[in-house]
Amino acid sequence: MSKRTTNEKEAAPAERVPQLDEDRRRAVARKAKALALVMPTEEEDAAITKAALADPDNPPMTDAELAKLKPARRPRGRPTLDVTKVPTSIRFDNVVLDSFKALGDGWQTRINDVLLQYLVETHQLSHRFHATVQAAGKEQSKLDEFLVVARNAVHAQEKVKQHLLATGREEAARGEVYTVDMGNAMVDNLPIIM
User: Fold this and answer.
1) Domain boundary among 68, 101, 125
2) How far apart, in Å, are the Cα atoms of 50 and each of 41, 46, 116?
3) 145 and 190 Cβ atoms separated by less than 8 Å
4) 154 and 108, same domain (yes or no)
C-alpha cells in the first residue's frame, strides 16, 4: 500500500468539491422541476371544463349533492368527548397498574371508570355548581358568584356560606345562595370553592 504525499492529500478534497457542488445543484434543480406547478392557460382550462361538462357518464354535482358530502376520514387526534378529561400524574402500586395494563388497551379508561363507580356508590361524586349570592329579599341584587365543587346543591350552598363567613362577609352570608349544577363544565373568571 503506497502512502500519499502531503500534496496529494491536500489536492484530493479540493478536486471533489466542484463535483459535489455540481451534483447538489442538479439535485436541487430536479426537485424544483418536480415541485413546479403547471397551470393551464385560460383557453386550456375552458376546454377542460367544456369536455368535463359534456361527459354523459360523469355529470357535474349539484349544490344539494355537494352539501351532502362528508370527509372521507375523521380529523386527526382523539374523537371529541362530551366529558373533558384532564391529564394528571398519579402513583399506583405496581400490582394495580400491571393488572389494569394486562387487560389490554383502554387501561386508563378502565381506571377512570372504577374510580367513578366508587364515587357514585359511596355518594361522594362531586359536581361543579355555579353559585350566585343575592341580597336577602332582593332578587336583582347580585352580591357575588362562585364555582363550587360539592356533592349536591345543599352542600354547595353550605360551602358558599362558610366561605363568605370565613372571609368576613357576614352580610353576604345572610343572603340567598342559588346554585345551578354545571356537571363537569368550567366557568371562566370565577373564584372556585373546593
Assistant:
1) 125
2) 14, 6, 62
3) yes
4) no
CB of 186 closer than 8 Å to CB of 147: yes
CA distance 10 to 16: 11
Task: Say which residues have a Cβ less than 8 Å from residue 164's Cβ, sequence separation at least 6.
Answer: 133, 144, 170, 172, 173
Query: In terms of domains, do 108 and 131 share one?
Result: no
CA dist 155 and 135 (Å) reads 20
Radius of gyration, alpha carbons of the chain: 35
Residue 133, domain extent: 127-193
List, for residues 120-154, the tens digit of each pLDDT value: 888 777 777 778 888 877 767 777 888 888 888 88
Q: Between β-strands 192-193 and 142-150, what pairing exists: parallel, antiparallel or unpaired?
A: parallel
Instruction: Report if residue 145 sits inside a domain.
Output: yes
Q: Which helix (H) or strand (E) holds 179?
A: strand 176-183
The whole model's pTM is what?
0.45
pLDDT digits (tens, 9 = 90+) for 33-58: 877 777 889 999 999 889 888 888 88
The C-alpha torsion from 87 through 90 and 94 to 96, rounded to 10°, is: -70
Per the CB < 8 A criterion, the answer to whether 134 and 143 are in contact is yes
